[in-house]
Amino acid sequence: MTGRLYTEVHGDPAGEAVLLSSGLGGAAGYWAAQVPALVSAGYRVVCYDQRGTGRSLQALPPDYQIKHMAQDVEHVLDELGIARCHLVGHALGGLVGLQLALEAPARVTSLALINAWAAPNPHSARCFDARLALLDHVGPRAYVEAQPIFLYPASWAAEHAQRVQAEVDHAFDHFPGADTMKARIGALRRFDVSDRLGAITVPVLVSAALDDVLVPATCSQHLLQGIKGSVAHSVAHGGHAHNITDPDTFNYALLAFLAGQL
């Protein structure tokens, strides 16, 4: 794979590096509620648009897999001269972190996994089937209009209706194309490291929302059971993107974990 990905770097160049890896949308902007808190705590924060999304519109390789996304993270770190990082990943971004910790553990100081998983499950499969059906039979607009249903609790989405609609419009305006989206969904659906979790030895924070309608909270429980010494953080309400809907609670837990206090 070639071509430099769009990357943003914030904060103290001498600070410990924290790399933020987004979920299916892939955009650096997903982390707007985390970057200021991490910068204020003295970290060097790296965000990037994943291959095929946002401002990183390079073509995807054939048989696209999570391992390719992890290799892209290594390339980003190499380009910035960063030997290792704390990696914070949301959903698909968490899978990237797990893959990197397994294949290149020297590059990972710690992992923070937000509503991630180690293996496919039938409920999430049903959700992705529905989303793909919308994409195939109705089109990209319907696909992105449905996205908030999976990301946010209904009460939060209703209260922030203008913000949610602006996000939907932005997602439609920057939709990467059906083939790219299907390849990304296919990669995450094939991901299964359930029998390798015991090989992960870096500190791991597993953060879950109990009301996530896309990824069952039991997926986080499986991660906690499989990764020795991993630390649990959960919220009752916040949805799949609880680092957005309740950023103060999530940021407090993340900073405590990074400081070794959680």
UniProtKB/TrEMBL annotation:
It catalyses: carbamate + 2 H(+) = NH4(+) + CO2. Residues 17-138 form the AB hydrolase-1 domain. Its EC number is 3.5.1.-. Keywords: Hydrolase. InterPro entries: AB_hydrolase (IPR050471), AB_hydrolase_1 (IPR000073), AB_hydrolase_fold (IPR029058), Pyrimidine_utilisation_RutD (IPR019913). It comes from the Bacteria. Involved in pyrimidine catabolism. May facilitate the hydrolysis of carbamate, a reaction that can also occur spontaneously. This is Putative carbamate hydrolase RutD. The lineage of its organism: Bacteria, Pseudomonadati, Pseudomonadota, Gammaproteobacteria, Pseudomonadales.
